[in-house]
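Narrative of activities, Objective 1.

The group set out to show that a structural description can be obtained from nothing but a protein's sequence at a throughput compatible with the screening campaign. Below is one input-output pair from the validation batch, recorded exactly as produced.
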Amino acid sequence: IAVGAAFAEKYNGSGNLVVAYFGDGAVNQGAFHEACNLAGVWKLPVIFFIENNLYAVGTHSDEATAVHLLSQRANSYAMNALIVDGHDTVAIHDAMSAAAADIRDGGGPWFIEAFCYRKYHHAGDTPGSAFGYRSKDEEAQFEEKDAMVQYPRALESAGIVSRQQIDRIKQMAVDCVQRAVDACTNPGAPRTVRSELWPEPESAVTGVRSDGSELAGVHYAARSDFAATRTVAFSDAIAAVTGRWLERDERVVVLGEEVASFGGGAYGATRGLPKRFPQRVLNTPISEAGFVGLGLGAAMSGMRPVVEIMFPDFSLVAADQLFNQIAKARHMYGGTTDIPLVLRTRIATGCGYGGQHSMDPIGLFALFPGWRIVSPSNAFDYIGLFNTAMRSNDPVVFLEHHALYKVQSEAPSDDLDYCLPFGKAELIQHGDDVSIVTYGVMTERLRSLRPVLEERGVSADIIDLRTLDFPSMDFETVGSSLQKTGALITVEEAAGGQSIGNRLAGVVSARYFDYLDAPCFSLTSLDVPNSVSRVLETEAMLDDARIVDTVVKAAERRLA
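Output recorded for this entry:
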């Protein structure tokens, strides 16, 4: 995140730099190394400041790392490094000043390792020795080195302040803290917070996502608004609307693996953009945790990054950044920070790419309400939803299916600026016997099965959800359809355990029970990882025959 903030400062030419403070335990995290590498490659204005207090909770650094000096790791990322006595206030000041001056002179990131000590345990006010992982003698030796002991003594020895002044400063600090405690606690009961200072219970959900005010006044379009249309490939629509945002908003950058290669990325979604915007369409190292976290830091710093993860399976490599950070950051900050980040990823089911390049991540992202999720099925929807996503202050993930990239569909001839609303499904086919809810690549596939179903005597409502996160899912359109048909089937290409159909069916059953005269049913691919063998992958994937058979049974109320 700090590297992303530094990226934003460098991009904006502010002259500011970023300092990331962390302990010795954090340097063994993979995300740390990915962040350092990005900072080194792009020479970002950031200082990595390690407070090496020798213990990560109760584990000594000698047990956790093969190098004694953690600052040696700076060599791997072409960074300058300094080692300082973390108890020496002046030494830290001088080290930080030297690093900051060099960074502002174009020297790139720095690494500062401050050797210090943490008398108390990782949490609370109990000494670490009480937990048995170190001795009281060790704590006593380091206590004499404490900056709160050394620094006042040095100031007094140098004649800068007197003992009386030192005592007065200490008392001022104690009084300041005491006033803060008194302001927050009940008189006579210093460990109980005043009731009026507790948060309101209903504020528990504050900040999970934007209130949408940034979209107030946006005019949402419909297909019927456009008289002139053209046929455009899905991937070309992605490139066109992305380019439009690069033109109109200097805060927009595109990041990801190979996005600036091959003239337009690995599958044409940035076609023509690297040449037009060479400083803003940027290839990253193969380090998803690093560049996804960078995207978060940049977004929190006012930029509007578009981040591409080449395959959704790689989102698991960046899971901490995607789900523990991006999905939760707004709520953790009480709604005070925006996360205007767009994430794009390609679902490659059916390509024979195997179990680690083929997953559909819908069920994974749907677990985290901080994410808005969209899955357009055509060029018109993609452009409109992308424009809304780029105006949103929430993180939005676009799930793009590889089978759609070459598909031609209608889009406005001369308009790349229209918007479509989040949370609005489209009823693409009318029927009376059963309601089919789907999204993405399955939308046109179901439309194509209409003649087959009609031959079997079945007419169906087909609903393209478009927006897939549960807080904004269009259950009203689903309910209206059920009032007519009385039966629901969800159809997804995702594997059973990675789908959202059963969860969706549960919500629908609870909300619209009175409309139903048959159980809800969820159709998915088999609950297995995809295989490299095309024969095995095809067998695992949901096929047309199973779809038709299930829809007919639902229409005839023969599903159990």
